[in-house]
Amino acid sequence: MTAFGIDLGSTNSCIAYVDDTGHPVVARNAIGRETTPSVVYFEKPGSVVVGGAARNSALLAPHLVAERIKREMGREDVAFTYHGEARTPETISAFILRELAQSAGRQTGEPVRDVVITVPAYFGVREREATRKAGRIAGLNVLDVLDEPIAAALSYQSRRPSGGVRHVLVYDLGGGTFDTTVIRLEGDDIRAVCTGGDLRLGGADWDERVVRYMLEAFTRQCPGLDPTADEQFMHDLAIGAEVVKMELSSALAWTRHLRFGGATAEVEMTRATLEELTADLLERTLDITEKTVGEARRRKVETIDEVILVGGMTKMPVVRERLRERLGLEARRHEPELAVAKGAALFALVRQASREPGGGPEEIADRLGISASEAAVMTRRSVTTVVPRGFGVRVADQNDPLFATDPGRARTYVIHLLPANTPLPADSGAVSFATSIDNQPMAEVEVWEQKEGTSSDEVSDNACVARGRLRLPPRLPALSRLDVSFAVDETGRLTVHAEEPMSGNELDLELQIGGMDEAAVSAARTAVARHDVSS
After folding, report:
1. By the 8 A CB rule, do 12 and 340 touch?
2. Residue 56 exposed, middle or buried by CB count within 10 Å (0-12, 13-18, 19+)
């Protein structure tokens, strides 16, 4: 059975597979497009529309349309209601995944089951787990989630193989998120060195600036009219902003006519104006890129040999210009909207082969109709990623004067057992901590993940992602030893083990991350399967 790679994007999504020549190809959707807008229209109970038709439907019923849901993945405090029914980001994403799977199934003539879904390299454990759950809700077997820059590098390497060691910087600016990752390529080995990013920086922010500009131009030309309360006008303006932004990647100026309340305004935007309006957004990406390159240098990467631009926003000429001017980096675009899905398809084949009995080069060669030597090249690829953000535990500060008299009020901070950019798989080994008071009945073990930005031990710069309680034996004196270990496998799954060595009492945390437990995932899968999904 063919394995598929899915780029589940903020603005557009894409699915690919490895064909019988051994090359990754994109499966087109029902209207023949290689990418599908990541938009869901809840047409009526039991029926949803995904893609371009859903985006167009927003003109008539914007309150029934979900867009850019990727930015909400992993958030437990977010839900959307359509036709009286609450929908989580995972469930909405599942409808997109299901439509992609249906399109690929029509093209290949076989059902889509095994998939690898890509995520921004800077996605944390919550967002990654939510993405896995979205795939399962869609009825798919998620072999793995793969960092988007790694997927892009896999695609690039398959097109431009070379010997020796190369260090590649992947600059990935998509519709809703930004990633930058330094990757080491050597033969069939792909190894992430370090990564950085911003989960709320992407093309949507450029769109907002364009919308604001066009709205201000309209009100100047048509004083007395305020269209901001008209949902249809504002949605049309948002779609127009995307068109203008894309057109200015090749044209120097673009004009759009806006109509409201019987009035018409002709609004022109030039490329120079767009670049001026959004200069600070681009500089934010360069700040992150500069920091990532600096971290790579600290990790003994002296030279960046190539810079690969991925994501639809990198079609803007100013991206290459500013990378050259500010960082001295010459960049090239590599299939900005397709590379991630194609790389995920290659990785899916490797993952599938490693997990299936007898799934070695011979089986793949037979399936694809290629030679055993060609299949061997495909399957011996080695991919190593890194922990995008540090993981640690919260502890009381024994140097705080309050600790001696009232440890419950003493300052607390986070010790990162696995710092950011630790290569995967990773194991901290047993790290020793201590109890706070005499006769302490239990120890609460809290798992904290570094928030976006610079690593810090301040609690406010980290987020609690899980907690559990370790039972302690009676009459245990203060400052008794407790051992805690963190392990993250190559897929990014985190496990935590805590032990009190005197009694042998243990705690193994089962991290319920992403807001949905197994019962909720099962119920959502059943509900999604009952829906009619069309494009």
Report:
1. no
2. middle
In whole angstroms, what is the distance from residue 391 CA to residue 455 CA? 10
194 and 214 housed in the same domain: no
Angle between helices 339-355 and 372-379 (to 10 degrees): 100
Are residues 110 and 88 both part of a single domain?
yes
- First-to-last CA distance in the chain? 25
Does any domain span residue 523? no
Name the residue with tokens 């003994």: 300
Sheet holding 165-173, edge to edge: 331-333, 306-310, 165-173, 178-186, 189-198, 382-384
Domain that holds residue 169: 4-201+283-384
Domain end marker among 277, 302, 333 = 277
Output Rg (C-alpha) for the chain, integer angstroms: 25
- Specify if 94 maps to a domain: yes
Q: How far apart are CA 309 and CA 329, in angstroms?
A: 11
- Each residue of 70-82: pLDDT tens digit? 989 988 778 889 9
Residue that terminates a domain, selected from 277, 292, 321 = 277
Give the E-state strand segments of 252-356 in sequence order: 253-260, 263-270, 306-310, 331-333
Is residue 525 in some structural domain?
Answer: no
Which residues, in sequence order, are bridge partners of residue 65? Answer: 41
Number of compact structural domains in the chain: 3
Tell me the C-alpha distance between 14 and 28, whole Å.
8
Q: Do 74 and 195 lie in a common domain?
A: yes
Stretch among 117-121, 175-179, 369-373 having the lowest mean pLDDT: 369-373
For 271-419, where are the E strands, in sequence order? 306-310, 331-333, 382-384, 391-396, 412-418
DSSP symbol at 423: B
Q: What is the pLDDT of residues 82-125, one digit of tens each?
A: 998 989 999 999 999 999 999 999 999 989 999 999 999 888 88
- Residue 250 in any domain: the answer is yes
Token pair 């009381």 in the structure block, residue: 396
CATH code: domain of residue 481: 2.60.34.10
CA 442 – CA 522 distance, rounded (Å): 33
Residue 217 predicted with pLDDT over 60: yes
Residues 312 and 190 grouped into a single domain:
yes
Q: How far apart are CA 365 and CA 374, in angstroms?
A: 8
Residue % of the chain over a pLDDT of 90: 57
Angle, vertex CA 467, rays to CA 462 and CA 472, nearest 5: 130
Structure tokens, 364: 């793949």
- C-alpha to C-alpha distance for 495 and 493, rounded to whole angstroms: 7
How far is it, in rounded angstroms, from Cα 13 to Cα 208? 21
Tell me the per-residue pLDDT of 247-294, one tens digit each, with 9 for 90 and over.
Answer: 999 999 999 999 988 899 999 999 999 999 999 999 999 999 999 999
The overall longest dimension of the chain from CA atoms, in Å, is 81
